[in-house]
Amino acid sequence: MKTFWKYFFAPLYGLVVYATIRLLLDTVTGMKFWHRALRLNLQDLVATVFFSYVFMLAFKRLLRWFDRKWPTDDFSSKRILRELLYLFLMNLVIQNAMLAPYTALTDDGMQWYDFVDINTIPLLYSLVLYGIVRSNTFLRAYIAGKTQLEKMTNDQLQTELKFLKAQYHPHFLFNALNTIYFQMDEDVSAAKRSVEKFSELLRYQLYDQQQTVPVSQEIHYLKNFILLQQTRTSERLLLETQFDDRLDGQLVYPLLFLPLVENAFKYVGGDYRLCISVALHSNRIDFHVVNSIPAGNPGADRIDKGIGLENLRRRLQLLYPGRHSLTAERMRDTFDATLSIQL
Predict the structure, then answer these.
(1) Which stretch of 48-57, 102-111, 238-247 has the lowest confidence by average pLDDT?
(2) pLDDT of 166
(3) pLDDT in tens, 147-189
């Protein structure tokens, strides 16, 4: 294909232009080109091929000059109008410097209709050629620009997601280490078990953060997290968990349920009741957490305004746009949070 465009397109283009001019001239004058001497017809064909190579060389250099001067993603009307103006001037020079003298020396010399034809027909074809070439160039530049913009946007979102995910770690580390610190004086065996659970949780956060994970892994992580949290909460805590057995290989983004569980353990009080449930409904996962809170505790008013929940809302907007719902509501003595994700 490159060989065709490099060597054969120019003479083919020139022959189409010549055939159009020849047809119009023969129509106006009544001449029949097949009645002309074979020598003249062959001479016209040779001249046409030569002129077409000259025109195509000038045409390509003109476009390359504009591409060097302006970026290819510049679609401004100023650039296009300037290119058309230069193309028009280039045609006038080539047509009147080469075609006009050649026409004046053949057949019956230069007539007014010859002058009109050689200044209009090649120009019209060059405009069509310009439109095809430039539309292809600008289309490829537009697609490349869109691809680059999408890549930059995606990279920016990935960076933001990593930052949001990283915000969980300091809070989690502080709570876990604080728990183990106090266990060391009271129950060394329990502290060892906590370190074991802590290391497993940390390994999941650090190394198992592929794009999506089976929901069974996320539930296993939550169960270990709950066990670790139970060691640092009051013995009065009444904990109820329900995990749907049908949840297994469904893919979800990791650490989306964690902020709601962390929040519940952080603010549980009053009757010390905490209920955690995960259920599968058709193609939707519903995660529900309810924890009791001390009645009249002014600090409880800030439960749904913490960094953790704001962080979670932003991650959901990036990972599940239009495919999730999150409600977090404080009642008189309970705090209720529900997260639904469409798979």
Answers:
(1) 102-111
(2) 55
(3) 766 666 665 566 555 555 555 555 666 666 777 777 777 777 7
Whether the CB-CB separation of 122 and 82 falls below 8 Å is answered with no
Q: Judge whether 224 and 197 are in contact, CB under 8 Å.
A: yes
> Does 208 score more than 70 pLDDT?
no
**Range of the structural domain that residue 215 is part of:** 167-342
- CB contact burial 99-135 (16+ within 10 A = b; e otherwise): bbebbeeeeeebeeebbebbeebbbebbeebbeeebe
Contact between 261 and 243 (Cβ < 8 Å): no
Residues 193, 335 share a domain: yes
In this structure, which amino acid lies at residue 26? D
On whether both 38 and 61 belong to a single domain, the answer is yes
Contact (CB, 8 A) for 24 and 117: yes
**pLDDT-wise least confident of 53-57, 150-154, 291-295, 334-338:** 150-154
**CATH label of the domain that carries residue 200:** 3.30.565.10
Do 173 and 130 belong together in one domain? no
For residue 147, count CB atoms less than 10 angstroms from its CB and return exposed for 0-12, middle for 13-18, buried for 19 or more: exposed
Q: Specify whether the CB–CB gap between 326 and 320 falls below 8 A.
A: no
| Ranges of H-type helices in 208-335 | 215-230, 258-267, 307-319
- Name which of 251, 249, 246, 256 is nearest 221 in CA terms: 256
Whether 38 and 18 map to the same domain: the answer is: yes
Nearest CA among 27, 52, 67 for reference residue 126:
52
Same domain, 31 and 121: yes
139 and 11, same structural domain?
Answer: yes
Based on the fold, state whether residues 140 and 176 are members of the same structural domain.
Answer: no
Are 232 and 337 found together in one domain? Answer: yes
Total domains in the fold of the chain? 2
